[in-house]
Amino acid sequence: MSALLIAKNVSKHFGGLKAVDGVDMTIQEGDIFGIIGPNGAGKTTFFNICSGVYKPTHGEITFDDHSLVGQKPEQIARLGMARTFQNIRLFKYMSVLDNIFIGFQTKTRTELTDAILHTATYKDDERLIREEGLKVLDSLGLLPFKDTKAGNLSYGMQRKVEIARALALGPKLLLLDEPAAGMNQQEKQELMRFVIDLNKKGYTIALIEHDMRFVMNSCNRILVLNFGQKICEGTPEEVREDKGVNEAYFGKGLLVGRKAVAV
């Protein structure tokens, strides 16, 4: 495997607040990479830096050997990085297939004039995105829902459709921001299997998640942040046994087995 996304000494300051402070990270091709930490640890800010929403105060980020510093989100998407957000952002009154079509927009050549005049370019693009959209849904087991309005689906199914829309980009790296947020335990289990299956299909995935069971049972590498700083990076076993991680979640105390008693 080779390194796909590399962050070196990345920081983001908002005035006197150091939301992210000197973080290093490496995501290898084929990883399911988790980013965890207590509330306010800087996880989403770090994701936003990686995807171009924020420009780092200092540090360097490279993706597939391209520097991402100064790149806009749409430019980074064209390089092969797709992103979902904590709050589902589907068009609820549009069909599942129409939502998937939106994910192909960076691949089309159609401009405003083409759309108005229904030129050959417009028709070619429409045919392409329909064929490719159906393939994406079929590969993820979502084809039976292609004509269903997105808002009529369960919360868990809506999350899968949002991920499918991100996959329409054909990404080299898929970023998932708290994909299990708001789900019940059954939905979380189904989503975890869905993410693992995506990884088996060849997708490299990085995710932020508060549900530790979800992370520990799906990710092969985990980065832990606290107060904007990296306190640990390693396998689930290494993270579980790390003293700094236990203190960040439970406070400084006496460790009893794998639990901590704060003092």
Keywords:
37% helix, 12 strands, 263 residues, 10 helices, alpha/beta, 6-stranded mixed sheet, single chain, 4-stranded antiparallel sheet, Rossmann fold, globular
Look at the structure and name the CATH superfamily of the largest domain.
Answer: P-loop containing nucleotide triphosphate hydrolases
Give the second-level CATH assignment, the architecture of the largest domain: 3-Layer(aba) Sandwich
Q: Please give the largest β-sheet.
A: 6 strands, mixed
Structural class: alpha/beta
Main-sheet strand order equals: 6-7-8-3-9-10
N-to-C terminal Cα separation, in Å?
A: 43 Å
CATH fold name of the largest domain: Rossmann fold
Strand content: 25-35%
How many beta strands in the DSSP annotation? 12
Task: Detail the poorly predicted runs.
Answer: none
The string of secondary-structure elements, in order, is EEEHEEHEHHHHEHEHEEHHEE
Main CATH class of the largest domain: Alpha Beta
Provide the gyration radius in Å.
Answer: 20 Å
Describe the global form.
Answer: globular
Query: What is the residue-mean pLDDT, rounded to a whole number?
Result: 89
